[in-house]
Amino acid sequence: MRRTTDRPKVLHALGLFATAAAILGPALAWLRLVPAMAGFLLLSLGGLLAIVVAVSTGVQALRGRETRLGGVAAVVVAVVFIVAAARGAGPPMINDYTTDLADPPAFRHAQALPPNAGRDLTYPASFAEMQRTCCADLQPLRLSVPPEAALARARGVAERMPAWRITSADPDSFEAIATSRLFGFQDDIVIRVRPDATGTSRVDMRSKSRDGKGDRGVNAARIRAYMVELARAQ
To answer: Is the pTM above the cut of 0.70?
Structure first.
């Protein structure tokens, strides 16, 4: 009998803990007090625990037993967590996208950045078919100007992209870092310009996440947004 009586207290405590974790994870990451992945893992822990508490709270309510604030809060957190997770379930589990699957732009300088120490920044060949299936619209952009002018235009647009920071430049390309607003996740970007056989310039782009196996479609969306802005700048 005592175990049944104590259950609402346990669910209340666990629900409050789950809610706190789900709030503190993003908040601490946004304040840059913890690394992005630590904040995300804390959010995930809170969300998963909230689901367990929410189910248990629902069972308690159906049996006509007491429910407390922590259990109710866990239900709210669980619903938000599930909806957010479902919204990112569509894209494939890849975190590296490019407009040139045959010859992806290479990162020449990103490898030297401390956060990328020990990382393999080559484009995984296994990603190509998955990208073709989900994102066939990711294509290079051709500009009717010489490569030097095209590169200058491409860089000018990149400098205006929100949360981008250019980190290096070469005669035919430049690299940048994009930082997410909430967690502070950083993705590496390279944009390459080459002369095209038709006498125009071909602009290719690659965007790669540093963390996680999937990116919820963020890198593909970034390429689309940049190419739209570059096309408008003509």
So the answer is: yes
